[in-house]
């Protein structure tokens, strides 16, 4: 029988803490009430210890996809929810996910909906998956919602894996090239400074060489301080990006990146269209569907535009016009949504829009990643060429003078 840590108050108002055994939090609270204690907080004691041990371990996306898919299969086969969660908690290969599933089962057993139980673990379940599950419970299509979430998760993991695999070599080039250039600037280039003193005194030192030697001296003298400052800046930036304002600025900057910004926006629009179409096709009201789908776009600017469109729909206007005014939706997508609204076929047209956008965007992403490797090689070649020319020009001038 699991143990529960509790904080309660007695009849005099004094705080009482301790441990007790019960089958659920509800039973633990009832046991406290029978002892004339008013529970303030009741938590699984074992869960707290496990969370301390496993809190920093993230659940892999592939494990989540398997969990969603298996849960959908069990429920579709008629296995009760509690039994399905118990089976999956025993079979999962991820210790962290096993513990989370057990906590979810405990909450569902206490009468909480599975969507709300998912929401208790934002580090594991994304906002999109939680909202999809909630919509599935409300609309009576939980199995379809779980399968859709599994499909989304698998697609995202596949995209992430392909991107990481494609970027591995360019990143390796960038790291190694940066290390080599830094080594040259710190240890090799300064030795030429004294050799070029005569040219400097004559005023014949090329300006490009002066820039290189000055930057080299800067790195040699203050390189450690610059490294510490860069680390501090990275920590501060990461902290700021966790705030709502920081996330909004980051989303805005992402969209400004050439080529990649359009790819990210297209993926967000495709995700919005697919989720909205799925929800509408399963009978979820349009306002509720818009609220769920906008939170799953992954971009706050796009989400704000959709929220404004929702207000227009509440006032009796169409969906296409405010989406067009936002500037984030391609004209072709807006036109298709407008026609679908007129023909009352949004639930069938939106998934088609998402599929077309995803295909085009994946082709653009593949092309972008393929071009990134030669671009990195060109950048590194340009940097090395700059260093070589900067050191060779004074030598050439000296030879000409002789």
Distance between the termini: 93 Å
Query: Strand content of the residues, in percent?
Result: 5-15%
The main pleated sheet reads as: 3 strands, antiparallel
Give the radius of gyration. 30 Å
- Number of helical stretches of at least 4 residues: 17
Count of distinct strands? 3
Quaternary structure: single chain
> Which sequence of strands runs across the widest sheet?
2-1-3
Low-confidence stretches: 46-56
List the secondary-structure elements in sequence, H or E.
EEHEHHHHHHHHHHHHHHHH
**Average pLDDT score:** 80
How much helicity do the residues have? over 70%
Structural class: mainly alpha
What general form does the structure show?
Answer: extended
Number of domains: 3
């Amino acid at each position: 029988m699991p143990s529960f840590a509790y904080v309660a108050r007695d009849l005099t108002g004094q705080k009482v803490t301790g441990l007790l055994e019960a089958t659920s939090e509800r039973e633990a609270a009832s046991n406290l009430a029978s002892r004339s204690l008013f529970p303030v907080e009741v938590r699984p004691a074992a869960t707290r210890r496990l969370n301390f041990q496993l809190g920093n371990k993230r659940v892999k996306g592939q494990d989540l996809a398997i969990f969603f898919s298996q849960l959908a299969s069990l429920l579709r086969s008629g296995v009760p929810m509690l039994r399905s969660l118990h089976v999956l908690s025993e079979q999962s290969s991820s210790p962290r996910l096993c513990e989370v599933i057990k906590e979810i089962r405990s909450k569902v057993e206490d009468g909480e909906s599975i969507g709300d139980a998912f929401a208790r673990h934002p580090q594991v379940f994304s906002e999109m998956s939680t909202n999809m599950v909630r919509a599935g419970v409300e609309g009576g299509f939980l199995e379809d919602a779980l399968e859709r979430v599994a499909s989304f998760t698998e697609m995202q993991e596949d995209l992430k894996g392909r991107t990481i695999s494609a970027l591995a070599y360019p990143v390796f080039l960038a790291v190694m090239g940066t290390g080599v250039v830094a080594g040259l600037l710190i240890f090799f280039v300064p030795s030429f400074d004294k050799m070029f003193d005569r040219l400097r005194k004559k005023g014949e030192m090329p300006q490009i060489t002066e820039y290189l030697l000055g930057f080299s001296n800067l790195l040699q003298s203050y390189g450690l301080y610059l490294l510490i400052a860069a680390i501090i800046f990275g920590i501060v930036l990461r902290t700021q990006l966790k705030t709502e304002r920081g996330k909004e600025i980051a989303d805005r900057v992402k969209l400004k990146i050439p080529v990649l910004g359009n790819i990210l926006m297209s993926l967000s629009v495709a995700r919005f269209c697919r989720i909205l179409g799925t929800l509408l096709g399963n009978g979820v009201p349009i306002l509720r569907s818009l609220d769920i789908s906008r939170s799953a776009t992954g971009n706050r600017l796009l989400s704000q535009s959709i929220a404004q469109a929702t207000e227009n729909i509440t006032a009796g206007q169409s969906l296409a016009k405010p989406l067009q005014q936002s500037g984030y939706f391609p004209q072709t997508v807006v036109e298709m949504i407008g026609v679908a609204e007129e023909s009352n076929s949004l639930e069938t047209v939106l998934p088609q829009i998402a599929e077309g956008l995803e295909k085009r965007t994946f082709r653009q992403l593949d092309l972008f990643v393929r071009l990134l490797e030669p671009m990195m090689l060109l950048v590194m070649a340009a940097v090395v060429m700059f260093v070589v020319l900067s050191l060779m020009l004074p030598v050439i001038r000296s030879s000409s003078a002789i």
